[in-house]
Structures are given as C-alpha cells and as structure tokens.
Amino acid sequence: MPRRLFSADTGGPIYANFGDRINATGVAPGDWLLVVLDDENPIFIRHRTNAQIQAVRSEPVAGLLDPARDEDRAPDAAWIAVVGICTHAGCKVVAGLGPYDGWACFCHGSVFDASGRVRGGPAQRNLPVVKLTRVAPSIFVTE
Fold this sequence. Notes:
Elements: E1 4-5, E2 14-16, E3 21-23, E4 32-37, E5 41-47, H1 50-58, H2 70-73, E6 79-83, E7 94-97, E8 102-104, E9 111-112, E10 118-120, E11 131-135, E12 138-142
Parallel strand pairs: 1-4, 2-4
Antiparallel strand pairs: 3-12, 4-5, 5-6, 7-8, 8-9, 9-10, 11-12
C-alpha cells in the first residue's frame, strides 16, 4: 500500500527551497514525499510503480481534458513532481487517491491520474509539473 513519506526529523512535510537537495532514500515505488517549497508551495515528489507508468503512458492523449503526454511531463518515467494545488479553485490535493491512483481534490471533486493530468472535473487543467533532477539518492527541484 503506498504511503506518504515525511521527514524523519520533523514528522511533517519537508521544507525546502528550489535547488535544495532532497534525500529520496527509502522512497519506494508507489510512495511519495510532500515537500513545501519556499514556505508556500506544496509539491508532491512521487516514485511511480511500473504499473502506474504503463497506465499513464498507454492512455490515448486525445481523450484527455488537457492533453499532455506523460513522456513530456515526466522524462524520468519513475519520478514525477507536481504542484499539490488543484487547478480549479486552488484547494490542496491529496495523493494516492481516486480511480487513477493519482491525486484527488476534496473541495469540488476533481481527479488527476499518476501523471497529474486532470481526468475528472470541475478542473480543466493538469496539475503543473515541477522540474526535477535526480542524482541518486538525492532529488533537486528546480523552477
């Protein structure tokens, strides 16, 4: 069962700035980190399973509300980082939920897949992707 991972030191989200090194040791496929960047932006850094990658990469793009290829959103197929704010009304999303094993917004019911692509409204736009660079076991989030 996927689980949300926290900083071992604080027991809560990891606070970082763009460009900081984030230790991804222990983030198994299916797990994620919640990182708060610059004291305000919740970012989910997700280590996706092979099944999640296959599901989002085999989905026809033409049928999506906001068409985007997973290969463009997550060049390193195993890892993706998205802003954890719903594109409908700015509510925080929750990871690991919904029929697409992605993110869900409890404010108004928007659903996103494991690539952060909107799959059910009222949101009409995908969760924004945050660029990341992985130098195992670390991840660097860049603007």
